[in-house]
Amino acid sequence: MKGILVIFVFAQIWMGSAQYVSPFNQQKIQVDSTGDYTFIVSGHFYGDGTNTSGYPANTLLGNLEQINTSNASMLVCLGDLFMDVENDFPNYQHSLFQQLNMPLVNSVGNHDLSGNFYQEHFGKTYFEFQIHRDLHLVLDTELDDGDISGEQLALLEAAKNRTKLGEIDHVFIYTHRTIWSKAYPEMEGLFLDNTQGIGATNYSAEVLPILKEMGKNASVYLFSGSLGNAPASFFYFHDQPNSISIIGTAIRALKRDALLYVHVKQGKVSFETVSLTGETLKPLESYSVDFWKDEVGEVPFNWRLVPYYCKLMITHRYFWYGVLSMGFLWLVFWRFKKRKAKK
């Protein structure tokens, strides 16, 4: 009886059917016994700051049928699923979550968090699950301002140990912030228009050494979804010596919007770039550092949006923090100057 139970548990793990249930639509990951499967990755599902509708980006909603008929095992969002999680949640339920026939996974971005609303409705913001011999790690880069520490660092350490034991073939890691960008000098200046921490993160000092160890025994894929005003929906960089592939991908409700299909077949990983607007796309590897350096900044600035950007600025709490701070400093200076004049 005990032997039968062990076989049953092993079968469940191998099939991947009991590994992840989406808190957004209660869908389970469905894969077969061949070891082959496909999943879809992108980020910034709300589009950009001009989308105040409370719904996901129109390019995403307009392609739900294509997504649902893709035979993908899951749809992964790399953060900023929502623009305003508390206000947008009801609209997302009926327009996106209930329309998907596959589980939705999210690696939270700054727009997804408002108090504990996200955690109360969708659970933990970092976790792992396994599909066949592949480990999927979902991390929260908002928790410690870009640092991967505490339990999250422990998840990476445990994954590294499992690759050493030969249990894992591929490690897929999902984050919102491009915490890796400052570890490579060739990327300097490419990701200035995205979510950044106040100071340097612990990626180079603590995270990268773990990934390098992983890369000795498994292939490592690190996905991020905060690209800012990007020239394309994709970025690709391969750290060849350490077997680490770094991939950025996001949509912005623009003509360039596209999704990344990740195919795992016969133990090998391949990528397919799929446009949401009918555009002709290049292979993922073409959207390299060189491509970005040639193209970054090419998107023209829309001057008609200046009033809107001004409104965003003056209605944001950080603007008023600055106003209050400057007012306080001016008051201190004025009182000091007044006392000095009396003397």
Question: Tags for this entry?
Answer:
six-stranded mixed beta sheet, five-stranded mixed beta sheet, Purple Acid Phosphatase, chain A, domain 2, disordered N terminus, alpha/beta, 11 strands
Short description:
With 343 residues, the chain is an alpha/beta fold. Helices cover 32% and strands 18% of the residues. 37% of the residues are buried.
Largest sheet: 6 strands, mixed
- CATH topology value of the largest domain: Purple Acid Phosphatase, chain A, domain 2
Task: Please compute the radius of gyration using only Cα atoms.
Answer: 22 Å
Average residue-wise pLDDT: 87
Distance between the termini: 92 Å
Derived from helix and strand composition plus strand pairing, the structural class reads: alpha/beta
State the order of secondary-structure elements, H for helix, E for strand.
HEHHEHEHEEHEHEEEEEHHH
The neighbouring-strand order within the major sheet is 4-5-6-7-9-8
With helices defined by DSSP (H or I, 4 residues minimum), what is the helix count? Answer: 10
CATH superfamily of the largest domain: Metallo-dependent phosphatases
Beta percentage is 15-25%
Stretches with pLDDT under 50, minimum 5 residues:
1-18, 297-305
